[in-house]
Design a protein that fits this description.
The protein is an alpha+beta fold. The protein contains 7 helices and 9 strands, in the order E-E-E-E-H-E-E-H-E-E-E-H-H-H-H-H. The chain starts with a strand and ends with a helix.
Length: 359
């Protein structure tokens, strides 16, 4: 890796020659401005406002613009004469616990490399001292024409330095917090804790820039002349929370499903909805005794016996219907007999009346 600054770490009376190397790199995709009519590239040229002529880099200097618009020229010689003890030195001023550094102050990150063989021993001494103390070093250094604040800590076997903003460069969060008093219930905190536990930890190396990958695919498709299909936009939700409890519960269930955990929802909650729970009404003042193992077994046996007796009851129904049919036949026979006997008596009466008439 190419060094961007050479100097030394001042550790008391110990001087450690080092090289400063960028610890991060920017993977953002940069675009050029073009003329839409013909695709020509748009470039910016440095032009003097007075004579409207283009100026080369060697003819450009620095100046400070006063409040009334007056330009005050400042040369490199002027800046070189200023007392700047950290011009080529990273001067350690204190060692503090890491939690005393506000993350809001974090800026760019660098690796410090030992510059040469003689620097290896003091470099290793400072590194091991930082490891054993569990502290970080606060230092001052100068880079790109200004003095800066830094924090030195150990990353693996290397000393890393984080540029820090000065305390007066951190703005107070005035007017940022929600207006009014907001009360959070314990049930809401419990669900928030459950969601945090469900999401758990993540391997930071597994995180990547999805948007950058989509832009790269778009560029590759256009370069090959392929038709670019619009991506499906997800539902962002609009930032509106209707029911905080329901949103937290659904978030927990969704997090469990996304991680493939078993029992993501309760039984009967296949669609993610929460089942209604209704209290059981008591029929009397006394609570019913809990069933024992013996009573449960007896109930099972009686149920099995009832199932076995079901075919017999069906046969009884058949015999009952047969009996009803035979009874109906006997009743019809009796009616026919009675009707025939009635007609016979009527015939006997007619014959007797005929005899009397003939006499």
């Amino acid at each position: 890796m190419r060094s961007i600054w050479n100097g030394a770490i001042s550790f008391g009376l110990v001087s450690i020659p080092i090289k400063l190397v960028n610890a991060t790199e920017n993977h953002s995709i940069h675009f050029r401005q073009i003329h839409l009519a013909d695709g020509g590239r748009i470039r910016y040229r440095k032009v003097c406002e007075l004579d409207e002529e283009e100026v080369q880099g060697g003819e450009i200097g620095k100046a400070y613009e006063d409040a009334d618009g007056t330009m005050i020229p400042i040369t490199d010689e002027d800046l070189a004469q200023l007392p700047l003890p950290t011009a080529k030195t990273i001067e350690i001023v204190a060692f503090v616990p890491a939690d005393q550094i506000d993350p809001l102050q974090m800026d760019a990150a660098y690796y410090l490399s030992a510059n040469g063989v003689p620097a290896a021993k003091p470099y290793t001494l400072l590194r091991e001292a930082l490891k054993r103390s569990n502290k970080v070093a606060v230092a001052k250094y100068a880079l790109r024409g200004r003095e800066r604040l830094g924090m030195l800590r150990v990353v693996d076997d290397v000393i890393a330095m984080h540029g820090l903003l000065w305390p007066d460069e951190i703005r107070a969060p005035e007017g940022v917090a929600p207006d009014g008093d907001v009360t959070v219930r314990d049930a809401e905190l419990d669900l928030a804790d459950a969601l945090m536990d469900t999401l758990g930890e993540v391997d930071m190396d597994s995180l990547h820039d999805d948007y950058r990958e989509a832009v790269e695919e778009l560029i590759a498709a256009k370069a090959s002349g392929e038709t670019v299909r619009p991506a499906e936009s997800g539902d962002a939700g609009g930032g509106k929370v209707i029911d905080l409890i329901a949103a937290l519960e659904n978030s927990v269930q969704a997090a469990k499903k996304s991680r493939g955990e078993e029992g993501a929802g309760a039984e009967g909650e296949g669609d993610g909805e929460v089942a209604d729970v209704h209290p059981i009404k008591k029929t009397s003042g006394k609570s019913s005794p809990q069933p024992t193992k013996k009573s449960t077994a007896a109930a099972k046996k009686s149920t099995a016996a009832a199932r076995k007796s079901t075919p017999k009851s069906t046969g009884a129904k058949k015999s009952t219907s047969t009996t009803k049919k035979s009874t109906a036949k006997k009743t019809a026979t009796k009616k026919q007999t009675s009707s025939s006997s009635g007609s016979g008596s009527g015939t006997k009466k007619t014959a007797s009346s005929r005899r009397r008439t003939s006499a």
